[in-house]
Structures are given as structure tokens and as C-alpha cells.
Amino acid sequence: MPQWEEWTFNGTPLAVKLFPSLRKCLIVKCPKLRVLPDDLHRATNLNELYLRQAYGLSEINSLPLAYKLEVTNGRGLKKISSIPLLRYLEVGNCLNLECVENLDKLQHLVLICSEETEQLPQWFQDLIEQHNNMASSHRSLKKFEMHCNLQLLMSCLEGNENWDILKHIPVVKIQTYSSKEYIRYTMDPNNYDANIPSN
């Protein structure tokens, strides 16, 4: 729906549960959609939301999602917040994303970088810092995966500039788009494997 700009539930009584059977929703190629409706938090059985090429969305927040959010090519997206039950987040090519916060149950994060991305996004560093500042018994993030260019992968090697950010995540898998170069790391038991081209 290339001309869709606004999604509202005006006139729906607050007592009415929205989309009681909806568990999975895909919104694809809706470049003018500006916001998700505030009342979407009333769709309490919604587990998975996929947003692809929804360029106009600037913020995703306060959703009841209990499992998965995937956002791809969201060039207008600046903030993802207050999705307390979310366990899986995949962010692909969202270059203007600045803030990801209040995802208290997040277990698995996947980041697909653009070819031009040369460093880890600041929002990711902030999210990992929030995670590291929690008591170990409250830390939920178990796995991080990233697809990126070779330069960014190299910066994540053990001993390089981004290693201190990553080494506290229990499972890390980083690879180039071709999957030929990679880093695989587990914290416990400690295991580190990297395949990079030799000079």
C-alpha cells in the first residue's frame, strides 16, 4: 500500500481487544506510513511484527510483542523502545537508528549492516552497556549476530577496538556478507574461532 499514511483505531471502544487472533503481522512496502497506532498495544496476542521498507516510521514503541520484531530498510527509524517482552530483534539497514532501550527480555539480537557501515552503531554500544550494568542474574541477552563488511568484522576481532564491547555476550557470531570471513565466540565454555584473510 504505497500511499498508506495513517493507521488508527478511532472509535474502537477501549474495552475491545484488537485483533484477538492476530499472532504475526507483516507490513511491507508502505513507505508513507508515519506511525504505528497507539492502540496496537491492545493486540495482546501479537507475537511477531515484520516491518520492511516502511521508510516513514520514526519510532516503534510500547508494543505487546512477546517474541520477534524485524525491521528492514527503515531509513526514517530513530527509536525502538519499551517492548518489555520482546525476545528477538533483527535490525537491517536502519542507518538513522539512534536509540534502542527498555527491551528487558531481549535474548537474541541480529544486526545486518549496510556495506558503508564502518563501526558499531552507538545505539548498540549503549544497549550492551545497559546490559552489562545489570546484575548478572537479570541479564537476558544471550546471542548477538551481525552481517557486515570486512573492515567492521576486523574491528571486532579479539584484542581489537570493539572486542571489549562484545566479549560479555554469551554467544557472538559475526560474518561478512559472503560468510567466508567470520568470528564465532562463546563465553562459557570459552571458545573463539575466527576466519579472516591473511595479508
What labels would you give this structure?
single chain, 199 residues, mainly beta, nine-stranded mixed beta sheet, three-stranded parallel beta sheet, 11% helix, 28% strand
Topology overview:
Elements: E1 24-28, E2 48-52, E3 59-61, E4 68-72, E5 79-81, E6 88-92, E7 99-101, E8 108-112, H1 122-133, E9 143-148, H2 150-155, H3 163-166, E10 171-176, E11 182-186, E12 191-195
Parallel strand pairs: 1-2, 2-4, 3-5, 4-6, 5-7, 6-8, 8-9, 9-10
Antiparallel strand pairs: 10-11, 11-12
Strand line-up in the sheet with most strands: 1-2-4-6-8-9-10-11-12
Return the structural class. Answer: mainly beta
Q: Helix fraction? A: 10-25%
- The fraction of residues assigned to DSSP E strands is 25-35%
What value does the Rg take, in angstroms?
18 Å
Count the DSSP helices.
3
User: What separation lies between the terminal Cα atoms?
Assistant: 49 Å
Order of helices and strands: EEEEEEEEHEHHEEE
Strand count, sense and closure of the main sheet? 9 strands, mixed
Task: Provide the residue-averaged pLDDT.
Answer: 91
Number of domains: 1
**Could you say which overall geometry the principal axes of the C-alpha atoms support?**
globular
Strand segment count: 12
Low-confidence stretches: none
Structure explained in plain terms:
By secondary structure, this protein is mainly beta. The protein has one domain. The chain contains 3 helices and 12 strands. The chain has a 9-stranded mixed β-sheet. The longest helix is centred in the middle third of the chain and has 12 residues. The model has no long low-confidence stretch (mean pLDDT 91).
